[in-house]
Amino acid sequence: MSRQTQAIIHADALLHNFKQLAAAAPASQSMAVVKADAYGHGAVNVARILQHVSSRFAVAIIEEAIALRDAGITAPIVVLEGAHQAKECQMAYQHNCILVMHSKAQLAWLEACPADRRPHIWLKVDSGMHRLGFALDDVAQIVTTYRHLLSDETVIATHFACADDVDNEFTERQLSAFERVVLPLNLPLSLANSPATVNWQASHGRWNRLGLGVYGGKVSTQALTDITLLPAMTLRASILAVRDVPQGEGVGYGQTWTAEKPSRIATVGIGYADGYPRHCPNGTPVMVKGQRASLVGRVSMDMITIDVTHIPKVEIGDMVELWGEHVSIDEVAQCAGTIDYELMTRVSQRVPRIVKYL
User: Fold this and answer.
1) Catalytic residue at 215?
2) Contacts for 116 with CB less than 8 Å, ≥ 6 apart
């Protein structure tokens, strides 16, 4: 590698997090969600790490499933958005994928397939998020009309809008509405994502879908007690240059930061083309030589600048942690005015993912 900009993926943290979350719902089965390249961590690597503890995986679209198959992952895969085109029903059957159906058009595509070449399906129900899913009032009729398309693998699923917020009553409203309509149908259920698994015990169904929590993201507005989640990614880069900047001089595009005193500034080899958010303001924390330092000046495409005046003996080649064990990704996300999901998934493909095992 020509420069030392890397995303270190901690295999032990992934395993720890999955096991912690799964143990929080012992009566459920849990699957790892590896959509969006495993939230930026590398879907193939993550699936290989978790394949002995996650008996199936979930992705958003069929292409993500096929990439896992091409890499030798054999566990069943749930495609959360279902089929976007009719031909994907046959593709799902061929690759042992379960399609989550949310519209009559998708069910019509499935009906058109030969009866012996239809993939297993789940049914998605809109319990109040109003994004995808059959209306609650229509679910019973859908199950009756399309009973011939269902199988022993069929699950009825929904998704929560506010499950991370323990003080938001909307999750209870979704649960109540879903259960009122769906429980009489006597089919297996899948409701819980990572936040619901942790915060809402009543949401634990046959299958829980574990996404953000597997990667160490923040899943609850309250401090976790019995569950400790570890960051699965450390984003780091090396220092390319160190220079002294006199008082009154500015740094970076737009001169958005000016030295209030003689300062020592380090240039780090990472920028928004690597996925480090351009909107991080002055003061966003990083870690250098065991001490916190602050971003100064505007994030550019390939570089950032940090103030290391207070840290002795900073040199070219020293590594800087942008987020990970010592600087939480949630803290950086708050500085950037976004969420940890976005930072994880926006780490670009020119940043090598390096899997680290203990």
Assistant:
1) no
2) none
Q: pLDDT tens digits for 157-177?
A: 999 999 999 999 999 999 999
pTM over 0.85: yes
Query: Is 124 part of the annotated catalytic residue set?
Result: no
Q: Which of 19, 253, 289, 313 is catalytic?
A: 253
Residues 6+ apart with CB under 8 A from 346: 40, 275, 277
11-215 under CATH 3.20.20.10, yes or no: yes
| 233-356 homologous superfamily | Lyase, Ornithine Decarboxylase; Chain A, domain 1 (2.40.37.10)
Per-residue pLDDT reduced to its tens digit, 240-285: 999 999 999 999 999 999 999 999 999 999 999 999 999 999 999 9
Residue matched to tokens 């995986």: 57
Per-domain boundaries in the chain:
11-215, 233-356
Q: Which residue(s) pair with 156 in the sheet?
A: 123, 189
3-state secondary structure of 307: strand
